[in-house]
Amino acid sequence: MGFDEKIGNTTENTTGKIKEGVGRATDNERLEAEGRSDQAKSNLKQAVEKVKDAFKS
Description:
mainly alpha
């Protein structure tokens, strides 16, 4: 996994956590769901990159 992808995935995951927290604090279900979705996408991207790295070595 390239360094740029790691930073991007970490940023997306962190942003998702923030969105989820703000959504929960403000009773905004849409924002909370969007945050969870961002985190799930980030986790999936990280998993794909790990599989790619495993096949490279």
